[in-house]
Amino acid sequence: MQVEKLVAFHKTIGDVTRIRIISILANGPKHGQALAGILKLTAPTISHHLSKLKDINLVKDRREKNTVYYFLNEDVLKHYSSALPKMVSTKGDSNKMDNQKLNLEHKKILENFYTPDGRLKTIPAQRKKKMIILHHIGSLLEKGRKYPEKELNEFIQSFHDDYATIRRELIIGSIMYRENSIYELNPREMWADIV
Amino acid sequence: MQVEKLVAFHKTIGDVTRIRIISILANGPKHGQALAGILKLTAPTISHHLSKLKDINLVKDRREKNTVYYFLNEDVLKHYSSALPKMVSTKGDSNKMDNQKLNLEHKKILENFYTPDGRLKTIPAQRKKKMIILHHIGSLLEKGRKYPEKELNEFIQSFHDDYATIRRELIIGSIMYRENSIYELNPREMWADIV
DNA sequence: CCATTAATTAGATTATTATCTAATTAGATG
DNA sequence: CATCTAATTAGATAATAATCTAATTAATGG
User: Are residues A157 and B34, on separate chains, in Cβ contact within 8 Å?
Assistant: First the structure.
């Protein structure tokens, strides 16, 4: 999924007239004049909106004699509507834990070291616990993305003020690698292209 | 569900920067500076977008010391994302038939009198069949909405050219009622406010 | 070929909005 | 109280887009 398409979908849906058109077409195909009549808009305006809806493949048309019937492609609607919620629950902390059936021990450790706001209380001293935390932080970075050191610092700082230590640990634990002060994560996460 | 809210939701989501913010917040809370750093935008710009996201309740915040943490309200995301697909499958002809376990006889009658495009071939002469067709047309109108006669004509005309007859039949069959040339349907359909 | 009807395109207007800089507010801390 | 940092607000600019009228294209039917 490219972000642009997802954005285009929502941008197209985010208009009262187009939502009304979708709502009408949900009852079955209609031709342009009918839509214009129901919505009290001119034909060119309807044409304009239909063209946008066709751009994202949400509406298809079929000519019959002189008039063109427009109808919904429900698959597109379902596909893009579910994209964001799916992303959030795949990517989000707690849900991901559930998905991966992360064992309770890990769960507890994360809960113990994080405030409810997602900040680290302290950096675990125990190696095992520390690795769990580091992997977790890593899981929140984006695969394939190159992070300048300054940017990585800022990111880590949203968890803990001692970003230097954590940054070093990420390298030592080989969760990230560095090249000319540019940091990158090992591939793990989907949705890399969004952030 | 008011249309305005649904539109506002999609309009808000339909922006690259805001999608990216959502994607970031899917990993857990972040503060404004962090977002600005990651997205390489200024603080006021981030503030602007967060304010829009807060308007639709998709993002909440909590102050901690001097910095404000923003986090996603996933319920809102799921709620509004599912609204349109739900509407389409509830409202759409074939699906509604399935839902209501409309018996095969009705189904056949509807199929016999409708073209695949949703236009009426003829008005059934048999009373029973006529009522099935009329109820079906009524089911495509919106509960609680007042239809001026002209508008109702246009709507009916998208099914059949003889709108006068059908309009009269809708009244006789008490599917609609009229007051000062304003027509209204008996409550039946959800999503009344969209079309 | 001409007339009709439906749909699209062109062009103009108006409204909305994403982004920036500069100024302001709000807390925290020395 | 003075200072620092984070966030918001104000105001400006430039881009996008919704809608209309007028003109054009497409297909049908006599």
Answer: yes
